[in-house]
Amino acid sequence: MSVDLILAASALWLATAILSPMRSLRPLLRYLLSAGCVLGVAACLIALPTAPPRIEFPFALASQRIAFALDPAALWLLGFGLVPAIFACWLGSPLSGRSGTWWAGASLSLLGALGVFGLQDGMSMLVAWEVMSLGGAVMLAGERAREAGGKPVLLMLALLEVGAIALVFAILLLDHASATIGFGAFSAHAPQTSALLSWAAGIALLIGFGAKLGLIPFYEWFPRAYSSGSGATGVLFSGVVLNAAYFALSRGWNSWLGVAHDSGTAFGLGVVAIAIGVVSAVLAILFAFQQDDWRALLSYSSAENASIAVAMLGVTQLFRSDHLNDLAGLAWTVALLHLAGHSLAKGALFLVADGIQASTGNYDIVPRGWIRNSGFMLGLGALFAVMSLASIPPQAGFVSEWYVFQSVFQGFHLSAFTGRLALVLAGAGLALAAAVGLATFIKLFGLGLLGMPDPDYQRPVPRRSAVAVGVLGLCVLAVAVGAPLWLNALASGAQTLFQANSPQAMVSGWLLVPLTDKFAFISPSKLIIVMPLLALIPLALLRLTRTRPVRRTAVWFGGMTQHGRDALTTPLTFSNAMRTFYSFVYQPTMSTEREHAQREYFIKRLVFSEGVTDLFERHLFEPAVRIVTWCADRLRALQSGNLNFYLALVGGLLVAILALTLV
User: Fold this and answer.
1) What is the pLDDT of residues 350-359, one digit of tens each?
2) Region 23-49 average pLDDT
3) Which of 34, 128, 157, 425 is 20 to 30 A from 7 in CA distance terms?
4) Residue 634 maps to a domain
5) Domains contained in the chain, number
6) Rounded to an integer, what distance in angstroms lies between the CA atom of residue 52 and that of residue 558?
7) What CA–CA distances, in Å, run from 481 to 484, 486, 526, 527, 587?
8) b/e per residue, 501-533, with b = 16+ CB within 10 A?
9) Do both 344 and 294 map to the same domain?
10) Quick one: 483 and 592 in the same domain?
11) Over the stretch 294-337, which tens digit does the pLDDT of each residue have?
12) pLDDT category, 467, cuts 50, 70, 90?
């Protein structure tokens, strides 16, 4: 039955892409897209914890019979990625207008992601990967990306094509080793694959899929592309698309490279993944903290969370190198749990951003008292989502972050000092990322949703957006509270890869444990009961000790001010201390422009602008662009239109051919 639901979802998404140019059928598109997402979620729920049967299609691509199959890890990531996509597709993009372009792009992204999750050969998977990337570009083109000249979309496509070239290289290497491009053959020949080929293919896969995951230096396309689109686009990018990229990388490393039989390759790739993942996470969340646009901040956070998952993939390889299969299964499961909670929480906050845009026309992080004006459901969902992404108990993000550190703390089991040192340094880097992440989401919630109401923006967030945010927030809590039940869905996948049922060992009754309750344990299921009861203690003390009424007065702001909003903390004020402390990373820029009336003493207009330097754009992308431009200028003569020059080229080519035949 799950296979039939997947096929039905694919048919609905394909129908959306076909019908999107027809203006009269536009109202139908949201129903088709969201219904397909609902069927996809239902298929995942029905199939887990086992994998549905493999589908063999009656046609081939590059002489390879096309097949489709979803293993438990794919079902897990696909299902959690599609839950927020249901609401994003139902609400649609507030920036798309009456165009059907966004709907076509969303359907292509979903179809491409489904293909990345399930197609079983290299050629068809590469086609699905390109369809997924094209769908993202089409979504952005259907919104306001044209206002920036299309540069954010072009940067995204350029960097993703660098990744695509790396993927083609990896597939060719694995095809050379196994004499076919089927994934089954990749896995079967993995034990015989040479260490050099495994290393080259592994690094190529990390670059290729890392371009979509936002690893360094690719994460710099995230804020540009996300900020040129809507929150609905961000939901798909940070949910099902991001999950598909991570699944493909995890599948490639764990199944195709022979890491289970070559300890040296597993160890080396693990150290590389940990280093890149941790550095990417720290840089991404540091730059997220400086953003004053909802979409830019959340996009950097998506890169940070994907980087944490990649770091856990590296931890998996380190444990495999020492044949600690139960710990390898623990780290593998933690990465999947982390991305599950991230998909739901990030989807909720992107929909909050769209709701604010519907009320104000922009995505600025400005204190306007949205929770007070927009009702209980918006506040509940946004609070739960922010708590999760800030790793505050008892939310899903806290559970996965706790497991991340518990996995890193298991490094004392490794025999090599280098491995133990790598995990110690990883723990320090991840702790820094977690601390900055907490500050980032305090800023987002405190400045973006709290504060005094703004009389210029009395219109609340639309009710349907608030309800969608509330439902997703409750789903975030449900993932944490029900973790003892949900983790069993990954048991068969871990058993297949590592011959160890780590997900089942992570649960002890209502306790969550890192394989044993002798080391550490938590229980979100009990915390959800205990924490409200504990909150009664300070509330009772406050009630009993209150002897004087609360007195409210104006804020002192360099003198008394008539308007309380003049004394509100701004995003720049909140983040300036961190910008100063980490100035060697941010390389901040500030400029002031003055417009005078008659004499310089009478300033008519003062414009202050500030920002931070994008490291890789300045030191990598811009030099690359200058080199390409220089080469293009030198080769411009080839397009001069001079017939004699072209005849000379043809003559030279004929002489060269003749010389080769005579040698």
Assistant:
1) 999 999 998 8
2) 89
3) 157
4) yes
5) 3
6) 67
7) 8, 10, 8, 8, 42
8) bbbbbbbeeebbbbbeeeeebbbbbebeeeeee
9) yes
10) no
11) 999 999 999 999 999 999 999 999 999 999 999 999 999 999 99
12) very high
